[in-house]
Write a structure and sequence with these properties.
- The chain has helices spanning 20-28, 55-74, 86-96, 110-125, 155-165, 214-223, 250-254, 260-270, 275-295, 316-324, 331-343, 348-361, 366-376, 382-392, 402-407, 409-412, 416-428, and strands spanning 5-10, 31-38, 80-83, 101-105, 129-133.
- The chain is α/β, with parallel strands linked by helices.
- Helix 2 (55-74) links the parallel strand 2 and strand 3 (80-83).
- The chain binds flavin-adenine dinucleotide (FAD).
Length: 429
């Protein structure tokens, strides 16, 4: 009987722990062919003229893929790395290595699903099946107490029902060993320059240099439970004075170097006093993904009759330039934008402040801001980014949001300095 080979197409799931496509391929096939494609689509300019991927995220991605390769090697495998369109590369590799099936994790945002559809069509032409798995959420779609079409649009209702009626599945084991076919050309990791971007220069003021990969992710996760200034307290919890304790896990969650379930079960195991806040934050991530699954692009599309869309400024382009360069003249906003530009990461509160300011104060089209965040954020995730921006812009129906309130903060303030005095110490601490 001939051998069965399954090609595992890695995308935003760059890990070997809790990874169903890898685990199932190892279980069902004699040979596993892991592949990662650096797709040029993600390194071109977006409609606003910004790069779709900035150089800080590109470096993080390269590090993550390098780490995945090492981890796969540690269990006997090898990662094939290519630069190019997966709809062309995957069928070629599938034919070359006599693959029987291709596995991948299903995405929700339209650019990502378009790419999967192209791959599916190309594979179909050579009579191969692309099998879809669900692996990006905390709660499995099939364990929700409602079908996708009936998911409540209100986060509060979604949270209440999910917490009451659903459970989080245990993590899937890491395969002890995988066997890859004999590989003739595994391919080299590209440099940032080969992806068409300038090598990033680290800003000496930045407190954290995010290093991509599963190993760094697991280290960061452990550090969440070792907060020395407040023992036993998660960094992501907020104390009474409003100081933020951030887990800073988002870059690894976004690239799938870390699974949501892994974070959840670590919280349960350590039972830190404020662990429920971190779990609540993870639920926001699920919520946005499920909203995209339910509504697609409509979730972020303005309704024509909407009275809540602010009237846009006549000189939007100029205002947008000043915002993105941190030259608005508002110290808080400018400081946050400098931090974003220099590091690729700002906290949730800071994101709300600058997004709210752009939309409500400068009256610039929110999609420009979202596209700019898409370039700059190391943790860029389509559903989280576009969903949160649309939320702050008042586009979608999910109104009971603390984000919407915080996002509108700059509008109501009498004096900008008062706002800064009240918020700056807490936000920039
Ligand atoms: C305008 C705007 C744009 C955003 N863009 C992104 C994005 O592209 N990618 C991204 O991961 N997050 C995005 N967020 C959500 C949030 O700001 C970040 O997830 C969070 O700041 C990451 O830091 P942390 O890991 O320390 O978060 P923690 O507070 O420690 O939370 C733990 C995890 O919960 C999830 N989470 C927390 N808050 C949210 C939220 N509001 N929405 C979705 N998930 C959340 C994240 O995965 C985060 O890593 C955005 C928020 C706003 C207001």
């Amino acid at each position: 009987m001939s051998e069965k080979t399954i090609l595992v197409w890695f995308r935003n799931d760059l890990r070997i722990h809790d990874n169903e496509i890898l685990f199932e391929a190892a279980r069902k096939a004699d040979k596993v062919l892991p592949v990662y494609c650096f797709d040029p689509f993600y390194f071109k300019k977006n409609t606003s003229g910004n790069a779709k991927t900035g150089n800080l995220r590109a470096r993080f991605l390269i590090e993550s893929v390098a780490d995945l390769r090492e981890n796969l090697r540690s269990i006997g495998g090898e990662l094939i790395i290519r630069i190019g369109n997966p709809a062309e590369i995957l069928p070629q590799l599938a034919e070359q290595y006599k693959v029987n099936e291709v596995y991948h994790h299903r995405e929700v945002a339209h650019e990502e699903t378009d790419i999967s559809e192209q791959v599916e069509t190309a594979l179909w032409k050579i009579k191969l099946n692309l099998k879809h798995f669900i692996g990006h959420t905390l709660y499995h779609k099939e364990d929700l107490p409602f079908p996708i079409k009936d998911i409540p649009d209100s986060f509060a209702v979604f949270k209440k029902k999910v917490e009451r009626d659903s459970t989080v599945r245990p993590c899937i084991g890491t395969p002890e060993r995988i066997f890859t076919p004999e590989i003739t050309d595994a391919g080299e990791l590209p440099s940032v320059a080969q992806l068409g971007l300038n090598e990033p220069v680290d800003d000496p003021r930045s407190a954290t240099r995010f290093v991509g990969g599963e190993n760094a992710a697991l280290k960061q996760l452990s550090s969440c439970f070792l907060n020395t200034d407040q023992p036993g307290m998660l960094k992501s919890s907020r104390n009474a004075a409003g100081t933020e304790y951030l887990s800073m896990l988002s870059p690894w969650l976004a690239m799938g170097c870390l699974s949501m379930r892994k974070v959840y079960w670590e919280v349960i195991m350590h039972q830190p006093p404020y662990g429920n806040l971190l779990v609540l934050d993870l639920l926001w991530r699920d919520y946005f993904r499920f909203m995209f699954k339910k509504h697609g692009q409509k979730f972020i599309a303005a309704k024509e009759t909407s009275a809540i869309s602010p009237k846009l400024a006549a000189n939007q382009d100029e205002l947008f330039e000043s915002w993105k360069n941190g030259e608005t003249g508002i110290p808080l906003v400018d400081a946050i934008m400098h931090e974003l530009n220099a590091t690729g990461y700002i906290s949730n509160s800071k994101r709300q402040v600058v997004a709210g300011y752009l939309i409500n104060e400068l009256k610039v089209d929110w999609t420009k801001g979202a596209a700019y965040f898409e370039e700059k954020l190391i943790d860029y995730s389509p559903a989280s980014n576009w969903g949160n921006w649309a939320f702050i812009a008042g586009i979608n129906d999910a109104r009971e949001s603390r984000y919407q309130i915080a996002g509108k903060q700059p509008v109501g303030m009498e004096s900008k300095s008062e706002f800064i005095d009240t918020w700056l110490p807490a936000l920039l601490a």
